[in-house]
Amino acid sequence: MNENTNVLVSGAGIAGLALAFWLRRHGFAPTVVERAPAIRAGGYKVDVRGAALTAAERMGLLDEIRGMRTGVRSGTVVDAAGRRVASMDGDTFGGRVHGDAEVLRGDLHRLLFEHTDAEYLFGDSIAELKQTAGGVEVTFESGASRTFDLVVGADGLHSATRSLAFGPEDRFVRDLGHRISIFGVPDHLGLDREEVTYIGPGRTTLVYSVAGDADAKAMFLFRSDDPGVPRGRAAQERALAAAYAGEGWEVPRLLDGMGAAPDFYFDSVAQVHMDRWSDGRVVLLGDAAYCASPASGQGTSLALVGAYVLAGELAAAQGDHEAAFAAYEREMRPFVARNQKLGPANLKRMVMRTARGVRISMAMLGVMGRMPGRERMMAKVIAPIHAAATAIALKDY
After folding, report:
1. Which of 61, 79, 80, 359 has its CA 20 to 30 A from that of 330?
2. Is 74-99+175-268+349-388 in CATH node 3.30.9.30?
């Protein structure tokens, strides 16, 4: 019979919801605390790849996930005048192979929430943790206090659980020297399930539309040597506008829409590196433990696989948290390391440092788009992503 069945999961993102799903499946009693007042809707598009497809299939949700695909049909790179430099199909542009599924983050949140039986504490978060011999005494921001057998921090890159249990964020978060911003914009380009990318020196802009959405999403990815991230939306909007000042193509018009966007997001492109993911009865999952950065394209897959493995090891160890946490790290660390390497490598391709680099990249894309055998060339680009996404054999717990 399982011990330590009463588990608090901090964060109702993909990692936290997937963990709650598997914990309940294995006979545990999960409670999920989430700072937001409800499950987050909308969001940008994410990929479910490789081993994560296996995890989703074992959840019985793979068909539904594939049914939610964004339907993006093509990807195009344009120059400052809006002229097409190169085009390819949407899956090739996004590095997807072998049935990988691109979905909206909010749709995946909703699906996991609808299929998960857990106690939810919305509009609250962990304020204090105190470990005892028999559990973890948790004080919430609301002032309520409860004791749990185990606590899982699945609360993202800026994990409050990690800070409480392991120490300050700057000990573990590595800034990759870039910033990212994403928000919804009117589809003034008339995109129909299309993705368009414009590359300038040190800064890249991407706009896409997905099936069933009349608007579009704009993403801005740029180099930054500034320490830290501006606090507050107004300061972040000013930083984004300054970074793209004087940029061509449709960038000024896209930036005009950020003030009205209800879903404005701005953060550093960073990774989390830790020597250990657990301390006593507290363990970390997903971005809180091993964020690979948005540039890796693997955050969602790492979350789904990590949740499957952590819950499975807890079940296999019959709730012996020390044995389970050690086995979880043994299983996941090689997979995490392989996927984290994708982040810096992809950034070099996504953001060109100089105007000369942009010209060379545009020329190469233009030539490649006209060459026979371009599919084989793109396959070589996609191969490292697929290899990383499948670099773990999931146990059957």
Report:
1. 61
2. yes
SS (H, E, C) the chain: CCCCCEEEEECCCHHHHHHHHHHHHCCCEEEEEECCCCCCCCCCEEEECCHHHHHHHHHCCHHHHHHCCCCCCEEEEECCCCCEEEEEEHHHHCCCCCCCEEEEHHHHHHHHHHCCCCEEEECCCEEEEEEECCEEEEEECCCCEEEECEEEECCCCCCHHHHHHHCCHHHCEEEEEEEEEEEEECCCCCCCCEEEEEEECCEEEEEECCCCCCCEEEEEEEECCCCCCCCCHHHHHHHHHHHCCCCCCCHHHHHHCHHHCCCCEEEEEEEECCCCCEECCEEECCHHHHCCCHHHCCHHHHHHHHHHHHHHHHHHCCCCHHHHHHHHHHHHHHHHHHHHCHHHHHHHHHCCCCHHHHHHHHHHHHHHHHCCCHHHHHHHHHHHHHHHHCCCCCCCC
What does the pLDDT read at residue 57?
97
**Cα–Cα distance, 94 to 350 (Å, whole number):** 12
Reading the block at residue 386, the tokens are 């697929």
Q: Within the chain, which residue ranges are assigned CATH 3.30.9.30?
A: 74-99+175-268+349-388
Residue recorded with tokens 């990212």: 180
- 313 pLDDT above the threshold of 70: yes
Which residue type, as a one-letter code, is found at position 9?
V
pTM for the full model? 0.93
239 pLDDT exceeds 70? yes
Q: How would residue 385 be classed by pLDDT, with cut points 50, 70 and 90?
A: confident
Owner of token pair 């970074």: 243
